[in-house]
Amino acid sequence: MKKISLILFIFILSFGAKAQDLGDILLAADDASQLTENYMRPAMKGLMYSMNGGWYSTAKTHKKLGFDITIEANASFVPTADELFEFIEGNYTYSTLPNGEQFLPTVMSKDDNGTTVDVRIPYEGNTFKVASFEMPGGIGSDIPGNFVPGPMVQFGLGLPFHTDIKLRYVPRIAFDDDLDAGLIGLGLQHDLMQYFGPLDKLPLNVSILAGFTTMDVTYAINDNNASDEITVTNGEAAFKMNTWTVQAIGSLDFPIITLYAGMGYNNGSSTMKIKGDYDFTYDVQDSNGNTVSTVNESISNPINLNFDANGFRTTFGARLNLGFFKIFGDYTFQGYNTLTAGISFSFR
C-alpha cells in the first residue's frame, strides 16, 4: 500500500516543492491571492477529478459478504490551455511584468522557468515600496503526459439488499517533517436489476453509485534563504479537498470479459491556505526611482483560496476476468479527461 501512496506523494512532493516559492508571491500584497489562485488552479482541479475516478469496474454487486480488494491509479490530463494563465495587468493593483510577458506558467506547465514580477506599492508621501520576485515555473516536464495522479487502494463488501459498501484509502504518510498527506473515501453501489424480475438472469447489470472522497495535504514553507526580502516563521501550505459523485452504471458481464459504462455528475471543492508569519523588507523609492530607505512589514496567515470542479461525466471501460483476479481500465470524459487502470481480487 505504501507504493500506491508514493505514486501520489511523488507528485505532491513535486508540487509541494513549488510551495516553497509561494511565500515570495506574498510580496505582491493584495495581488498575491489572485496570482496564487491562477498558478495553482489546474493542479487543484486535476486532483479533484482524479479523486472521483475508479469507483467501479462492473455494475454487478457482490453477494452478501462477498468482497474485493482493488489497487488502481487515476490520471486526469491537464488541457494545454490550462498550462498557462494570462497576466492581464489591469486586474492587478501593484504587479507588473518587466519583460513584457503576456502568459505565465501554471504549476502544471511544462515550462519550469520562473518569471520576474515587479511590485510597486504607494507609500508615504510621493514614495513607493518596491520589490521583485519570481513566479515559479511548472512541474509538467517531470510528469510524462502531464497528468494529475490519483492512486488508491479500495475495499468493497457485499451487504444485504444487493448493495456494496466501498472504502478507499491512502494511508497518512509524512516525508522529512515537511509533507503530511492522506486520503479516505466511502461509496455505496446498489443493484437495480433485482427490481425487474426475469431480467436479472441476463448478463446485463444496472446499478447506481454514490461516492465521497476527502484528502488533506500540509506542506512546510521553510525560510531557505536568510538573505532575501522575506523571513518565514511557522510557514505552511495546507490543502483540503472534498469530492462526491453520483453515477448510473451499466455492464455486460461475461465469464471472461466485462464491458461497462457510467454516466453521472461530479462535484469537487477544495481550499488552499498559506499559514504562518511572514516579515517583508521593501525598498522605498521616490518618484524618480531612487532608493531612499527600506521598510519592514509583517503579515500572518495571508492566503485563503477556494477552488471547485463540477460537471457531468461519461465513462467507458472493460475488465478481463481471470477467476477472482481482474484487470480493468476505463476512460472518463469530463472537465479533465481521466484514464483509470487497476487490478482487483474479487470473491463472490
Detailed description of the structure:
There is one protein chain. The protein has 348 residues and is mostly beta strands. The chain contains 2 helices and 18 strands. The strands form 2 sheets. Strands 1-8-9-10-11-12-13-16-17-18 form a 10-stranded antiparallel beta barrel. A two-stranded antiparallel sheet has the order 2-4. The protein is elongated. Residues 1-6 have low confidence and may be disordered.
- Content of β-strand: over 45%
Q: Helix segment count?
A: 2
Strand order of the largest sheet: 1-8-9-10-11-12-13-16-17-18
Shape: elongated
In N-to-C order, the SSE pattern is HHEEEEEEEEEEEEEEEEEE
The biggest beta sheet reads: 10 strands, antiparallel, barrel
Radius of gyration: 24 Å
Q: N-to-C terminal Cα separation, in Å? A: 24 Å
Estimated helix fraction: 10-25%
Residue stretches low in confidence (pLDDT < 50, at least 5 long) are 1-6
- The count of β-strands is 18
Quick check: average pLDDT? 86
Attribute tags:
ten-stranded antiparallel beta barrel; 2 helices; 13% helix; elongated; disordered N terminus
